[in-house]
Write a structure and sequence with these properties.
There is one protein chain. The radius of gyration is 36 Å and the shape is elongated. The strands form two sheets. Strands 1-6-10-9-8-7-2-3-4-5 form a ten-stranded antiparallel beta sheet. Strands 14-13-12-11-16-17-18-19-15 form a nine-stranded antiparallel beta sheet. 18% of the residues lie in helices and 28% in strands. It contains seven helices and 19 strands. By secondary structure, the chain is of the alpha+beta class. The longest helix has 23 residues.
Amino acid sequence: MKSKNALLLLGVAIVLVVAFLLIEKPFSEKPRGLPSGQAEITRVPIFQNVSAGACARIEISQFNGQTTATLVKADGNWYVDEARKREADARVVTALFQALTNVSEGEVVSHNPANHPRFQVDPFTGTQLKFVDATGNVLEDVMIGKMTTDFSSSYVRKADSDDVLKVNVMLTHMVSRPGADAWRDRMICDYMPDTITALTLQSPDETIQLKKFADGTWQIVKPSVQAADTTAVSRYVSSFSRLRAASFEDNDDEQPLEAFGLDPPQFSIQASLQDYSSTPTLHIGNEREEPKGQYYVKRTAKDQIFLISSPQADMFRKSIDDFLPKKEQITTVPVRPEMPMVRLDDTTTSPRVRLRTSTTPTLSEKNPRQ
């Protein structure tokens, strides 16, 4: 009897637990701290006044203000330092505003300030963005938190509210860039590889000229006309056309280019474009003294001096031998004497067993009449 009662109580307990899980959903990312009895979803307007046209400045703060950056728009361009013309990564800024155009409200998931660290919308773990117009009016001041578990949304909190909102756009990875340098434009060259039709490589030892034909193959023109390894040249062009900097040399002391080995350069690469619009040229200079492992580079069309890694520099400083077709490695296979086939029957020959059959005639073959 006691065992039956125990089983009955256990069954009731299981039913109650299941009902609690279905109704309360304690493990889901639901609003925390909502007033008792409130079941409907609360939505709050957000980013409705923010746009690329209205915004003139973005103030960014992380780690409770220890790392900051300010992006300023001037003459249609974005800068991390307008006075020194240090450009921001326009692609990142454009992508941010495009993402915000898809957001007009957020779903409240928590009212409780104690949950801010959990959603990473506090000053220590979140990223604060303040959008300001040309007159100094704040369009929106928000704290961007972590991603949702399905990687499709982000948590956001307005600076003047304790409410944590879920917005259906990925903002976390866009703004997780600590410091001004992380927002700077690192693109040195930005071309479609197919638009580059010729290359000239200049070093103190030699000058190499390469030309592409209409069928996509490349030929060495200088120092002598000969076939080129099209795969090797195409790989070289691809690396040049999308070259990004590892770091920056701002040259605040205004040293001459000679100090960086850029005038004259140690190595130069000049490309010709299909539409003849320009000949982008990259100069490679000396290795930086401290820390080592990076080389100074400069585009002729830009004032900024960049730094690229040693592997990047080695990838560009090629000689004529690097573009010559590779000789095929011919493997010589020793010839083995073929073994005669063994006849299994009138129609089948074994491909595996090769034995010499006896050629000595049998008794009947010697004398068919016997």
